[in-house]
Amino acid sequence: MCLVPYEGKTLRDAEVLHGDFDRARRREHFIRRIAFVRALYTSLGVLSLLLYRGIHTRGFPEPPRNETFVSTTKDLRIAEALACFHEPSNPNKVGYKAGVLMLQLVPVERLFMTYMETPQMNHPYQESEVVLLFDGDTAF
Asked: Which residue has the higher pLDDT, 30 or 15?
């Protein structure tokens, strides 16, 4: 769909791009979803959301790979848990573990799907997830 340059293996089964799931239908769904989310939040007067992202890694954090979507949350506690800030130290773990907590004011133009208009995204874990379009020039 030309969101990002594709890097990786080719499709195992090219048939997944035919019928109900062909490229044109996927593209149409994608465009309609973005238009819906933008219209919804703009009509509510919401131009941006304060979002959090927590990550943890063995070793030092690296810049993200070429991504299409970024998973974030509106809930600081969820991001802290993902960054493992409250995890007790474990001497059995091998290597250095880093936890990173990020926050960013994100314009609605980057929103793809959120738990607010798609309640299934918040069930059963109550993660308050907000899925963004990737932007390599921002924190997330």
From this structure: 30
